[in-house]
Every structure is written in C-alpha cells, then in structure tokens.
Amino acid sequence: MEPASLFRDKPPSEQRILTVFRAEMIAREEASWRELFAGFDHLKAITYSSGLDLILELTGMFSDVEVTFGSERILSREHAALEQASNIARGYTFVDAVTDQKAFLERLAAEMGKSARALLPRVANGTLRFRLLRKMPSHEKLYLLAGEVRYRVITGSANLSLAALCGRHKELYVVFEGEEAYRAFDEYYARDAGEAAPVPADYLAVAFR
What we know:
Blueprint (H helix, E strand, L loop, with lengths): L32 H5 L4 E6 L4 H8 L4 E6 L7 H9 L8 H7 L1 H11 L7 H5 L3 E6 L8 E5 L4 E6 L5 H4 L7 E5 L1 H12 L5 E3 L2 H8 L1
Parallel strand pairs: 1-2, 2-3
Antiparallel strand pairs: 1-4, 3-7, 4-5, 5-6
C-alpha cells in the first residue's frame, strides 16, 4: 500500500518548487550592521518591512539604492497608521494611494518629518528607488552590495530596520562574499522585475516638497 502523502491532494499553487542556495560553513564572527554594509557603492534590497530611519541612513552610505518591499502591505507602523488615518476605503491599498492620491503622499511626507525631504534629490535623480511586489508576497530579507571590485550578499531574518539590524531583536545573518555569489543572488532578485510596481519618482517628489 502506497504511503499517504500530505501533499498529494494539494492544488498546484501549494506545490511550488523551492529555490535553494547551497552553502558551506566558513567562519563565524561578530560585526555591526555598519561594518557589514560599509565599503560598497550600490545596494539592492528586498525586505518585508522597513524603518524610515534606516533608509535615511543607508542613502548616505550608497550612491545608488533600490528597495523592494515584499508586499503591498509593507507598511511599517508609521505607514499603517497613516493608512488608517487617511480613511482609505476597504481594499484600497498603499500602491493605489501612491498612484492615485497625491494628497495621501503629502500626508505621508508630513508624518515622516522634515528629515525625509533630504531624500528628494536622490529620488529625483533616480539614485533612490522604491518598488512594491504586487502578486505573491515575499518574506525574504536580501541585501545585494556591490562596489568597483567588491561584492557581498547578506541574507537571513533581519528586515531593513534599525530594530532588526541593531540587535534589538534576535536575528540571523548569513554573508556571501564575491562576484559569483552576487551574480547568482542578483539573478534571483531580478525574477521579481515583472511583479514589482515602481513607486513613481514624480509622485514622491510632490510628497517630499
């Protein structure tokens, strides 16, 4: 008699193939998040949630930053409170607000405070970009760092927030060094290009002025 399978009767959507990156243990060390992220020019990130404080700091460390949020409901506590306060109708998401409601963005900028306006030149010249995944949510935390001759990949459990990266939460960090690893993870990152909705720079510019 064939043994029972928990997955035999599952629909195809629940039998997705998993992407696995195989690795070997080289070393364990202690480092701050600034040490992990320092010394590179470009950052591409996938995070499920974020904190504005860290995004502000990261934009000063890199000449080019792209942040992909893993869900339409990316919203950090600040964003979530704003969405409730703005009386957005049921089913009207943050992506819709970004694309359709400049007034919402103006309120968002006001809540963020004057410091967020420092992001405006970077948003305007395209060296700071935000994207939102609109189909399948991503719970990944992936950071791709590149310089002229250096490459690094950071992954693990930590979201793009100071609470996660400064040790306020227990998190796991795995680091891959070198161009080969970077290219492999960059290809993986790029798979979401068709599903990620860019947050238009002109809408953000209106909000931050």
